[in-house]
Structure prediction request, 503 residues.
Amino acid sequence: MEFSKRHIGLLGLCILALALLASAPQAGANWLTRILKHADDGVPSRTGKRLPALDEAGAHLKTLPAARRSRAVAAELTDEDHWRLRNAEGETFTAATPEELSRGLRVLAPLTEEASKHVILLTGDTLFKDRTKLKALPADAEFDALIESRVHKLVRRVVDGVERYSLDVGNGVHVPIRDRAQVHEMLWQIARPVDLSGLRVLALEPGAMGLLKRTRPADPAPGRVAVETVDPERLPHMLSAVARGTIVISGRMKGGALHYRASSGPERTLMLDELRKAAAAHDVNVVVIESASARQPGTRNWFWQRVDLTRLDGPRARPALPDLIGQLTGGVPVETDAIAIGELRTGFQLVGIGRGASGGWTAPVSETWRDLAPEVTGTIVASGLRLDLTSRARQRELDARFVPGIPSLIQVGYLIFLFIGFAGLSVAREWWQRLWPLEARTDYARRAGYWAARSVRGAIFLLVFMPLVGPVSAPIAFVRGVWRALVSVGAILAYPFTRRRTA
Prediction:
């Protein structure tokens, strides 16, 4: 198959023009960006429209057991600082004062001796308004919060004389109510399933020659994951092999450095900033298990204990993060702290509620992740857990891609232009025939070369030229079609007169 200089130049021009056209959606906010960004915003109802927050909370009350439903009330704080209440039957009450609020609760959900406490379901927007208004609610009531169509238990506690609120997301993991963006980000991070098969447990060993491969080594035994020994200095350069995966390292944290002890020699220090930058470049999640011990997995003086996650078998084969954290912390309540949300990454740590941000939970681990297993935990006393994860926005961008490695905006934009190109197929075909005339059979010694050349020509036309000229060829084709239709209609209307004149 032979190409002339004109063919090669035309091919290069088409590819360059298509690349410039495809990169246009990333220049700034546009209609395509807005559609993709807000495609999943809102909570649709059965009719496809977003329900008001209080109505959505009321719909949830109907799903409660009868004993709990009879004393449950959905509550919303309005912009005028009034309380709007609703029970499962749809009855509403608006209260402007604490006295009216108490009366509204009694009217909508009368209490009995068996049911002596109200169940109050707060809407998500209420939590991010003036939280001092929550003191008007009964202190002995049971509180829940509805955020993004999920109900979480609302925990109230007093710390240093200040009343604080947090969401219990399960297994003793609490998300403090602070900033709206932080809460929504943390709830999404904690709710998404963890792919245990993508976890890579690493042992830091200076001078190690092993390289991270795209597939995890075979596990030494059921319920035990293979530990991969890597050189910490070379680790940032090897993360491309585990793109979109998760690496787990352990050691003693001091500031922004991880102190670790290899199989021999003194303790060494690994600065995590470079590792985090490399992880962000390859969309790798980094989990750091803090411990009082700096020794790495696999050293001989550790006592390994066999643990597994048999509780997570079956439907929980892809457990959520709280399930794994609950195993790791031994059930000690912890909360997220030091949250940093960026465009690409979300970083946070887990600390013990009773100890504050500096103490950690300090609880021995009895069980841990099945595929993370004994090599990391064993007899380690965990003092904290730091996670540097792919952000919600970035993960949605990765999930929206049809072809890995190409931004979703480019892919969606290309598909749109391809569809438009089909509308102007007839016009684009005429232009293409002038730019790249059809090959002649006599120009090729063999039939295979002739059909190969036609295949390449057709592929370039369909995949490059047609979507490239689609915004121009489609309107022209439409105008031509309308003109032909008008000419046909005119010919039909003029037919009786032309027939009489001919006669």
